[in-house]
Amino acid sequence: QVQLVESGGGLVQAGGSLRLLCVAPASIFKIATMAWYRQAPGKQRELVASITSGGITNYRDSVKDRFAISRDNAKNTVALQMNSLKPEDAAVYYCNLKISPYNQYWGQGTQVAVSS
């Protein structure tokens, strides 16, 4: 069973920063595309950022220039640095590990709240 453990969520004022961290199993981390998704109440889960095993990153337009995804293959971790947070960034953030479209795993989610 693949377990992803997230940490780093919390409450921050608008304009502040948070860093999310996800620890994944070493056995499959290096070959996986890692991503962060988020889901706000009443909304669909959406992709925030992803990073391939080769380090290629992708961001949704609304977080470009504010968020940065990175991975540490030695520690089997993926991080999401979130700067200049806005109230609309508030959501539950989920770590995702994907080997293929039919082989992916999710973390339990970590809450991010942004006060205006």
Keywords:
single chain; 116 residues; 11 strands; 7-stranded mixed beta sheet; 4-stranded antiparallel beta sheet; globular; mainly beta
How would you sum up this structure, described in words?
The protein is mainly beta and about 120 residues long. Helix content is about 5%, strand content about 55%. It contains 1 helix and 11 strands, in the order βββαββββββββ. The strands form 2 sheets. Strands 2, 4, 5, 6, 9, 10 and 11 form a 7-stranded mixed sheet that branches. A 4-stranded antiparallel sheet has the order 1-3-8-7, with no helix packed on it. The longest helix is centred in the first third of the chain and has 4 residues, at about 25-30. The chain is globular and about 40 Å long. The mean pLDDT is about 95.
